[in-house]
Amino acid sequence: MDRFAHPVFADLPETVFETMSRLARQHGAINLGQGFPDGQGPDDVRAAAARALESVSNQYPPMMGLPSLRTAVAAHYRAHQGLDLDPEREVMVTSGATEALAGALMALIRPGDEVVLFEPMYDAYLPLVRRAGGVPRFVTLKPPHFRIEEAALAEAFSERTRLVLLNNPLNPSATVFPEADLALVAAFCRRHDAVAVCDEVWEHVIFDRRRHVPLMALPGMRERTVKIGSAGKIFSLTGWKVGFVMAAEPLMRVLSRAHQFLTFTTPPNLQEAVAYGLTKDDAFFETMRDGLGRSRDRLARGLSDLGFTVLPSAGTYFLSIDIAGFGEGDSAFCERMVREHGVAGIPVSAFYERGDVTNLVRLCFAKNDATLDAAIERLAGLVHAG
């Protein structure tokens, strides 16, 4: 039946996330692979969704999103990142950030356009770019710091560059790009008249009092940036799939045309609840970050005590360990880890198209203390087994 399928999707293997989660279920393993937190998310935000289910219309909301949420998005980013957004013309609600990404790539890539991608990268990027007719050009970032270098940008950009897809903070490397790196990307975008699609879903999940700098805020980028955020990441409600897109009106006009033929709209009660959540004071976001930061430190400390080399984690739900000393690649290591020691992780090589890095394993720390401690205890057996 593959003759009826588009080759971009027909040739795709099962995602590594599905593979590792299935193995975790089969072996009763602790799943530190997929990036979802323990817990149900903030009680008051969930209560707001329940109230709205009874009090707000459950029929189609406006295609661009409820005015209450679009207004809240604009106010939120004004307060937290200094962005001045028109909620009517420059903000749109989507059914998750992946839908926002798919719509943006469909709307902005013409067949044959070159698209600059930074690897390691979220696994949806490449098939979506190829399905839209884009030609990928890769900038390979290397551990432990995953910095963006001018020479690599110069090699990737050309006169055919149409779009740049940037994830900041970067999953899986847990990197928060410094402003100097972002300024380099912005300069190349301006020089080559390219649009930047910025996947910034982890913007609130950053640690050690770092500050998220949106690429949209840099000189010359306001009119050529599509910024994407995620309520699922902000409120640890990953199953809600409520995303938002921000762009100048000329870009938003075409983005909305793609959105209207994808999901068209998003459950109105969830939109109302997210609108409520975005108005929460700074203390909520600081407490959220501090709690995740303590979980990061707990897992990092436990792994370090076992002798693992733990890479820095500046943001996201993840940290990586360097397993070069174990004498096997990350995929084989993860298979052994889940089958023999009952802990699921993700081989970071799955986030690279060119297979440059094969010695890192990503682990999710957005779990309760008991889960993390149990995982550390099981991994002690792996270390002792050698």
TrEMBL record:
Pfam families, per database record: Aminotran_1_2
Alphabetic keyword roster: Aminotransferase, Pyridoxal phosphate, Transferase
Taxonomic classification: Bacteria, Pseudomonadati, Pseudomonadota, Alphaproteobacteria, Hyphomicrobiales
Organism in which the protein naturally occurs: Methylobacterium radiotolerans
GO MF terms, alphabetically ordered: transaminase activity
InterPro entries tied to this protein: Aminotransferase_I/II_large, Kynurenine-oxoglutarate_AT, PyrdxlP-dep_Trfase, PyrdxlP-dep_Trfase_major, PyrdxlP-dep_Trfase_small
Domain Aminotransferase class I/classII large: 30-379
Gene3D superfamilies: Aspartate Aminotransferase, domain 1 (3.90.1150.10), Type I PLP-dependent aspartate aminotransferase-like (Major domain) (3.40.640.10)
Protein name: 8-amino-7-oxononanoate synthase
Cofactor: pyridoxal 5'-phosphate
